[in-house]
Amino acid sequence: MIEAFPDETAPRFLIRDHDGIYGHVFRRRVRSMGIEEVVTAPRSPWQNPFCERVIGSIRRECLNHVIVLNERHLRRILSSYFEYYHDSRTHLSLGRNAPAKREIEPPENGSVVAIPKVGGLHHRYRRAA
């Protein structure tokens, strides 16, 4: 937790489940950082649907399709996926646009080309000038 939130950047609340990994030492550390724990009910993933949705997207669209070699490799894959997720991936709730808005490219800008993202797992399509 200290490495995740250095220099007084800790959030006010931490929503977590009843996983055994959160032992007494973890809870004491969180409390000493001034974070209030909110524990979800046992076997209730619906209590945190936004987190469940994004974790599901990461698994389905990225991690189920690659073999992770080590922590450094995982961080590189996830960093690349998050860049793709925010800059290129369309979201229905955003009118089929990405969180980082993309301009409309008219046909006169050239033919459509595929730009590989996430090591070729996904692509961004643009018009080549």
How many strands in all? 4
Separation of termini? 47 Å
Radius of gyration from the alpha-carbon trace, in angstroms: 19 Å
> Order of strands across the biggest sheet?
1-2
Secondary structure class reads alpha+beta
On the 0-100 scale, what is the average pLDDT?
88
> How can the largest sheet be summarized?
2 strands, parallel
SS strand fraction: 15-25%
Helix and strand sequence: EHEHHEE
Low-confidence stretches: none
Describe this structure in words.
The protein is of the alpha+beta class and 129 residues long. The protein has a domain at 1-45. Helix content is 30%, strand content 16%. The chain contains three helices and four strands, in the order βαβααββ. The chain has helices at 24-32, 49-61, 71-87, and strands at 13-16, 36-39, 112-117, 122-127. The longest helix is centred in the middle third of the chain and has 17 residues, at 71-87. The chain is elongated and about 60 Å long. 5% of the residues are buried.
How are the elements arranged and paired?
Layout: E1 13-16, H1 24-32, E2 36-39, H2 49-61, H3 71-87, E3 112-117, E4 122-127
Parallel strand pairs: 1-2
Antiparallel strand pairs: 3-4
Summarize the structure.
The chain has 129 residues and is an alpha+beta fold. It contains three helices and four strands; from the N terminus they run E-H-E-H-H-E-E. The protein is 30% helix and 16% strand.
